[in-house]
Amino acid sequence: DIQLTQSPSSLSASVGDRVSITCRPSQTIGSYLNWYQQKPGKAPKLLIYGTSILQSGVPSRFSGSGSETDFTLAISSLQPDDFATYYCQQSYITPYTFGQGTKLEI
Amino acid sequence: EVQLVESGGGLIQPGGSLRLSCAASGFSVSNTYMIWVRQAPAKGLECVSVLYRGGGAFYADSVKGRFIFSRDNSENTLYLQMNSLRAEDTAVYYCARAKEWDLGGSFYFDYWGQGTPVTVSS
């Protein structure tokens, strides 16, 4: 199975800050990397697919970059609604694994 | 509007069986890839099964031989039959739509249900 390692595991930031979350797969996955946001008690929400393609309706302050074995989710100018847990997920090969999550706290 | 609504979760004893349902609206499950993802308490996300358009399915090693993912096209509903349940199957189970992209080379999960909790305990 492909392991996805996210860093950091948790992150403290303030409204208006720019933050980045890294996801490193255990093997190359091309550009088949997706990002989700999850709030407590809620289902995950798709933010970005194919490394950098913003899902419809997602604010443009979210962006994704990278390839193969090094990927980044960036959030420019944090808003109060952005404090949540973020997961990367690979769709290169089954099982479609997720990273362990990054909790973004105020 | 696309919507997924899960049901069927609950408290079950180890070794028991449970069938989860996922009612879909706004699209047809008959020609769509679908997935079940679970989340154990205070843990991350795990893909347990994928149902392919042709009807075949993938199962994670942790559930292979115990879970069956199926669909009823006439009801536009998906099912996850869970047998020989173990304490480690305790989780919130989500169904989600797997949208193809890159000419079917990959997927992303664009619509999710609200989840149904399963607790396996004596």
Summarize the structure.
The complex is a heterodimer of chains A (106) and B (122). Chain A has 106 residues and is an all-beta fold. In chain A, 0% of the residues lie in helices and 46% in strands.
Protein topology:
The complex is a heterodimer of chains A (106) and B (122).
Chain A: E1 4-7, E2 10-12, E3 19-25, E4 33-38, E5 45-49, E6 53-54, E7 62-67, E8 70-75, E9 85-90, E10 102-105
Chain B: E1 3-7, E2 10-12, E3 18-25, E4 33-39, E5 45-51, E6 57-59, E7 67-72, E8 77-82, E9 91-101, E10 106-112, E11 116-120
Parallel strand pairs in B: 2-11
Antiparallel strand pairs in B: 1-3, 3-8, 4-5, 4-9, 5-6, 7-8, 9-10, 9-11
Q: Describe it for me?
A:
The complex is a heterodimer of chains A (106) and B (122). By secondary structure, chain A is mostly beta strands. Chain A contains no helices and 10 strands. The model of chain A has no long low-confidence stretch (mean pLDDT 96). Chain B is mainly beta. The mean pLDDT of chain B is 96.
Q: Keywords, please?
A:
heterodimer; A: 106 residues; mainly beta; six-stranded mixed β-sheet; B: 122 residues; seven-stranded mixed β-sheet; four-stranded antiparallel β-sheet; 11 strands
Mean pLDDT of chain A: 96
- Order of strands in the sheet with the most strands of chain A? 2-10-9-4-5-6
Per the principal axes of the C-alpha atoms, what is the gross shape of chain B?
globular
Give the helix/strand class of chain B: mainly beta
Helix-strand topology string of chain B: EEEEEEEEEEE
Range of strand content of chain A: over 45%
Distance between the amino and carboxyl termini of chain A: 34 Å
